[in-house]
Predict the structure.
Amino acid sequence: MNASRQGGDEESGLPRPSELLPPLDPEQLDVLAELGRRWPRLAPYRPRTYEALPVDPDLGEFRRAEVGRGPFGRLAPIGPLAPPPTGDGEAEASTDESTDASPEAGPGGAPALRHRARRLLLGAPLRSTTLAHESMRKLVALPVLAADALSSVAYGPEALLTVLVLAGTAGLDWALPIAATIAFLMLAVGLSYRQTIRAYPHGGGSYIVASDNLGRVPGLLAAGGLLIDYVLTVAVSISAGVAAVTSALPALRPAIVPLGLAAVALLLLGNLRGVRQAGMIFAAPTYAFLIAVVALVGSTLADAARRDFVPVPPTLPHATEGVGVLLVMRAFASGSTAMTGIEAISNAVPAFRPVRWRNARTTLTWMVGLLIALFAGVVASAHFSGVVPGGDETVLSHMARLTFGPGLLYGYTQAATAAVLLLAANTAYNDCPRVLHLLARDDHAPHIFQRQGDRLAFNNGITALSATAALVFLAFGGETSALIPLYAVGVFLAFTLSQAGMVAHWHRRRTEPHRRKNLLFNATGCALSGLVLVTAAITKFLEGAWVALLAIAVFVVLASRVRGHYATVRAALRLRPGAVTHVDARLPVKEAVREQAAPREEGPACRGEEEETPQQVRHLTVVALAVLDLSGLRALAYAASLGQPLLALHISPGEDEADRFRDYWDRWGDHVPLHVVLSPYRALIAPLVHYIATLHAQRPDLTITVVLPEIVPRHPHHRLLHSHDAARLRRALRPLPKIVITEVPFHVP
Amino acid sequence: MNASRQGGDEESGLPRPSELLPPLDPEQLDVLAELGRRWPRLAPYRPRTYEALPVDPDLGEFRRAEVGRGPFGRLAPIGPLAPPPTGDGEAEASTDESTDASPEAGPGGAPALRHRARRLLLGAPLRSTTLAHESMRKLVALPVLAADALSSVAYGPEALLTVLVLAGTAGLDWALPIAATIAFLMLAVGLSYRQTIRAYPHGGGSYIVASDNLGRVPGLLAAGGLLIDYVLTVAVSISAGVAAVTSALPALRPAIVPLGLAAVALLLLGNLRGVRQAGMIFAAPTYAFLIAVVALVGSTLADAARRDFVPVPPTLPHATEGVGVLLVMRAFASGSTAMTGIEAISNAVPAFRPVRWRNARTTLTWMVGLLIALFAGVVASAHFSGVVPGGDETVLSHMARLTFGPGLLYGYTQAATAAVLLLAANTAYNDCPRVLHLLARDDHAPHIFQRQGDRLAFNNGITALSATAALVFLAFGGETSALIPLYAVGVFLAFTLSQAGMVAHWHRRRTEPHRRKNLLFNATGCALSGLVLVTAAITKFLEGAWVALLAIAVFVVLASRVRGHYATVRAALRLRPGAVTHVDARLPVKEAVREQAAPREEGPACRGEEEETPQQVRHLTVVALAVLDLSGLRALAYAASLGQPLLALHISPGEDEADRFRDYWDRWGDHVPLHVVLSPYRALIAPLVHYIATLHAQRPDLTITVVLPEIVPRHPHHRLLHSHDAARLRRALRPLPKIVITEVPFHVP
């Protein structure tokens, strides 16, 4: 596992296109050669020529203009000799206009329109070779990667105070000590992640570190925690961002849910387009937010200094709880959500300029410093200005309005807060699909998460994250305070396991320099993270942490079962000596398989799905007909032209209709044996399935090809007017082995 | 149109099973024989024998036990010699236990469970020959068929008073005159329908009468009105029934919507099961309701008589409108919803005992008499007892509570009201699917509405009605008063057109006895209904009638387009001299069709989809492979065994992977020509579609069979873990002519 992953990691953690195509091992190659020897030399074919074919597969004429108008005209043509499309080196939106040029203007109608819209929204496709090797300066990397961590200052202190305020003034007295503890925790975890950066210069996400050093299940636990973390980062950041907006513009308060969903849609679209996080445009919000908070904290503390640091007494609601260990621990757990995002830099080491790990470390140090300063500053400012959570306004907004007045500066603060929170949500869009990709590569998640779209984005992961985050946002009504209890558990589970993995890492490498010191740092981080994890899980259990814990447990079980399924499938598909599949022995009709009709003598016939050579395949073609019209005759002609034993089947609702059909058949010339099945219950599919299942039971050595005429209307919406019997039949016959469904299309205007 | 319909009508209006299989006309038979002459005599086949086949199509061993355990075990086995299932003459629920016996207890797992649940809920399948010929005594027919009409007394008077109360006492003074007008209207319409019963003894629904006598578009207008009527009958009856329940049990008031949806679900299930309306169980609620209303009106009027008919002054809210023509007309339009359901008997003439039309007429007379009595009685009672609409209680409930006190009698009244309203909703379930069936038979609606399920019910129509009614109920929050404005328009449109049709009917039959008198009755009914229609459409337009009018207009346009599409399809499928389809000339790739590669000399090859004989079909088989595993090799073996020109296609993400695949191919023995397509954008489907579209463009005479390996996991939920490339490819290639998709299944555990 480790070795194969290392291969992908070497190129900045991005997947190589061949990852979905694992190479064959020597045993498989031997089996392949052996199977090939058993094949007959097909008569007219001379190897490495196309003589026997009625077409030239090289498609000398295969040029863009020929096929550019189809529903896939959006994609440049694919061919062995196709020139690269104009404007190929793109990673920017600006090239869209140039590639969006002429050929799609054809008369394709709806598809062309759809594809124009898609290209406008998502941009032109990107080649696999354009995998961007970002290399960010520290001054860009800091704001981009720290957005998630720093933005949590917008809700972390508030979450802390929300709990304490329940115990009135006595509770608020605990704000500063708890904040100091959290700041210490930030320091410890930050130091711990410095070690991870050094040890995993190719990117050390919690999943990788935990599964490399601790094993599969801890790795999955970490991954589960991470996934929960990403979903909640999106949901919490957006709800906090919307709260920042509605604090400034109370008129928008009824639109909280639509605003939040619009933000998710924006992130979805931007990331499907393949947004790059480099560039000053992504750095701006973080710096703007930094400036705003520093100014806010500065002026608040300056005010406080003028009052000799006598706090303004807050106007408190009646205290409903006393100060106790539980309350303090709950406040601590809530406040520690301000630490989320601290791991972002350790994931992104390859994005730095060389010497990568050193630059990443420096950036991490800066980030942790800023985070501690901002967090402590905000809690202290709230303390001295007497602002407490409550009502519809955020603490930050309240403080800014008190300090700056309701003018331009206040608006700026709120705008910067909303922007940095949107950027923080975007961070999850960068990381979550990659974790899903890693999980899929290890067979722990559906393989569709390994696919990259034509903009090189992991479309499926991005869509899954958006859908889940939108659901969570909706389920909790866009309330930040309702989401916080779920948040801490996932984050700190991933933190703890990641650092435990580092402890194991150092424990094993006895020769490493500084091993002892490194181990100490990581062990401290691990122990403290674990403490927060346990605190959060216990004190927040009923408030929502159980949801997160349950989700993680479900994820681990599901991921293990997914892995088991893929292993089974891989074994079944593997080229192996004496390859024989016993699939039909497990199917519902197994008891029906009777040894009655002996297979014919000549040649080795197969009873399961084990035909690897053409001479093993015994055909029976069955044409199912409802009426004798052009589509039915065409299906008959197609089936007959295959030259295999052929049987026509007609399902009739009654004797009269059956006689009528037999009469037509005779008039037509009775070229093909016909069998009529009566269906007194009017069903079409069930009797067909019955009949074919019985045929299969009688002669399990036959491969039965069921040929069906299918009417294809020109406009897809007209499909509603036609029966979908072919699709229903395909679903019903799918469990039976050796049944091949072939639809012969008949196009109508 | 008339003639073909008459055929179905003769058997009590129920469809015959052969309706979906129209017979071939002489021209088509000639073409069929001509096409047959062009077929080659397929070598080993001797007509009327099965010698050339590897199986015996008669399936001597085709017995129930063999296939009973599959997913379709629910259905008794179908075969030419299959004995009828045990307990065949069923139309009752009681036979379920006997047919639900042994064979499904097999190890089928999930399918068996699902089918047991289905049989438990819906009952055993019914043979087509069990089409019940109901024949009801008048004493049963009256309550069953009058439920819809009589139950409207539960909301009609209230709807009338709700409008008048807006103008205070002055408004309420108009209640009795308007009620008298409506009673007169009921009489006139009732007399008019007596004529329809005589003229259409096989059932004279508005759609049939209007389209027979007035033409297609009036018929469609009537059908649109009817469909709206049915949907609103369900929605209004259920909302009024729920109101009856919540009036008695105010604690249930917050559950109005769930209660209503539960009622829809109950009706859906009961009707999918194929509920018969005969039997005293359906007659009971109507009689119970009748007794309750008669008792209520009787005691209220007796009280009033003791006070010398001095009305109790009602406690009125402040009048918000003055009495004007508009108000009176609006009240009139609202109150006339009490007439809905009056046409039910004329649809159901064949269900009566002979002499059918005479018994139906007598029943209609009784029904109209009762309706007028109840309606007038309720309005008068409300007048004398001073009850006005308002608050959360219905007028009927309020009156019953005043008169009977809150005891057993009151509860009985409410229960009977709710029961009769549920029965009224059920009436729509009997009629709506039949109208949809008639529309489908005339090509005005999707043909799926012609299909009967295994319980002989029109499942699709029943489901469509349930879904629409549930949506309407939800959209209007289950408020009867909000639904009323939509109601009248549809009903009276159907009434008017039906009676206009009768006028035309009599106008044409100059020899008919009593023609003049009949014409007069129908003309009066038509004129009065039309008056109500116009009144309702104008006065209720903004309140909701526009929705109904718009829906009817949309329906007429859609139905006409559906008919047009079916006509086109029928023409395209028709066996006709020199049948040639020019389908590909209309497809997006038409410009790509180049005359470049000349078809081979021998034999008549086809360029469109016009192959009716095997020798016209020119094959090219293309196997698309992603990897070389057992599933891929099986697909190759299958394709090669067909013995047609074969090309293997591999889509590769890069040069390295392509070289690797070519290497594997050589080791295997290079038995089949291979072509590798590079896909730098990682897409699988798009390059395949491009390639095959280009092949087709180069050689439009070839029929290209695309063979794909498909991995079929044992459990359907595992399908999520596998790619659905085959399905996507099928969708993408569907618009192209002469492309046949064949999936070779590979079953994995």
Notes: The two ends of chain A are 54 Å apart (CA to CA). The longest strand of chain A covers residues 702-713. The CA atoms of residues 158 and 395 of chain A lie 6 Å apart.
